[in-house]
Design goal:
By secondary structure, the chain is α/β, with parallel strands linked by helices. It folds into two domains: 134 residues, Arc Repressor Mutant, subunit A (Orthogonal Bundle); 214 residues, Dna Topoisomerase Vi A Subunit, Chain: A, domain 2 (3-Layer(aba) Sandwich). Helices cover 42% and strands 18% of the residues. The chain is built from 14 helices and 17 strands. The strands form six sheets. It has a six-stranded mixed β-sheet, sandwiched between helices. The radius of gyration is 23 Å and the shape is globular.
Length: 359
């Protein structure tokens, strides 16, 4: 994989060099990352980028600084790959931040300038940021009867005490040595993960338990996809019963607009939603544990109805419209209203037994 990425980076560099040798205005072609160029592929069930591109020219006042920044980021990533080391995106920002000689002009003023350039590099040569050896803070935890090898170390996810394994951004470098599970359960809230982990739900139900801690990181989404595709494990997602929880499921399943260029490498189209649904609030007698939906919640719910993968599904339309009609929402923790172990001993086993999932 590193050799392929290096080849693509060298190809980009040679193209710029050839422009110079020909006496032409050096340019870099980059696919447009905007809503106008994002397409929902019904065949794959994923968001993807369209074919629209733009060119970044060196001899263009509006482009020249970003052109310089793009080549600086490319050179930095090339050096990481050559040395086979990794760096955080924050490290990269500080490493490349400097004032140009004989000027007051900085290469980068803030990290908010360098981060989008990384994504430009991803789409320009069609690779993942992690393949450029750039990392971000760890986010997400996992437990289960799985053994992996990570940079030479053997790690057993079933023997990590109360903490679980902290999911890194470089999940593509992990080798699975043993996977003994029937499915993957992804839980939005860390509190939900902790409850299920303490109750040894993953052991009793023979599953891989993943906590995303809110919106899942790219590393977590890649891990979910790998377990699904490489080990044929069904994926069930559990979130809060609100428009933002439903969107988290959507991101895991179909990808997001901002990362449409890598949906095929981190999304899991076969993922199904196990709860918490709005109907569950009434079916499991959780009415006293609900929260009044705010105006922003209702607005976001109405926006979800504009997403084709929700609007074309009768059950999803019913759930979202029910939230709007009743004006309520509920957190995963609302299940504790029925008892602290209600989620692990009654709610989830009941859902799994019935196969009560939303697609």
């Amino acid at each position: 994989m590193p050799k392929d990425v290096r080849k693509e980076m060298e190809k980009l560099g040679r193209k710029v060099l050839q422009d110079i040798e020909k006496g032409e205005n050096p340019n870099i072609e980059i696919p447009i990352r905007a809503l106008s160029n994002v397409i929902y592929d019904k065949r794959t069930g994923q968001l993807t980028l369209g074919t629209k591109t733009s060119k970044r020219f060196y001899f263009n006042v509006a482009h020249s600084k970003k052109f310089m920044q793009t080549l600086m980021v490319g050179a930095f990533c090339k050096s990481l790959i050559d040395e086979n080391i990794h760096a955080s995106i924050r490290d990269m920002y500080y490493n490349l931040k400097r004032t140009l000689p004989d000027s007051n002009e900085n290469t980068f003023d803030e990290q908010s300038e360098s981060d989008p350039i990384i994504v430009d590099m991803e789409v320009a040569i069609d690779v993942l940021r992690e393949q450029l050896h750039l990392t971000t803070d760890r986010k997400g935890i996992v437990a289960g009867n799985v053994v992996i090898e990570d940079r030479g170390d053997s790690i057993d996810w079933s023997k990590l005490g109360s903490g679980g394994w902290s999911i890194p951004s470089t999940v593509d470098e992990v080798d699975f040595k043993k996977v003994n599970a029937d499915f993957v359960l992804v839980v939005e809230k860390n509190a939900g993960f902790e409850r299920l982990h303490e109750d040894k739900f993953w052991q009793k139900q023979k599953c891989v338990l993943i906590g995303t801690g809110g919106q899942p990181s790219r590393g977590t989404r890649l891990l979910i996809q790998r377990l699904n595709e490489e080990h044929k494990l069904p994926v069930y997602v559990m979130t809060d019963s609100d428009s933002y929880g439903f969107y988290i499921y959507s991101v895991i399943k179909s990808g997001s607009i901002s990362l449409a260029h890598v949906s095929d490498r981190i999304a899991t189209p076969s993922a199904k939603f196990i709860g918490l649904t709005v109907s569950d609030i009434f079916d499991y007698d959780l009415k006293k544990a609900t929260i009044k939906a705010k105006e922003v919640d209702i607005k976001r719910a109405k926006e979800l109805l504009n997403y084709e993968w929700f609007s074309k599904n009768p059950r999803w339309k019913k759930e979202i419209n029910l939230m709007i009609e009743k004006g309520v929402k509920a957190e995963i923790e609302a299940l504790s209203h029925r008892g602290l172990k209600f989620m692990s001993e009654t709610y989830l086993p009941d859902k799994l037994k019935k196969g009560d999932f939303l697609d």
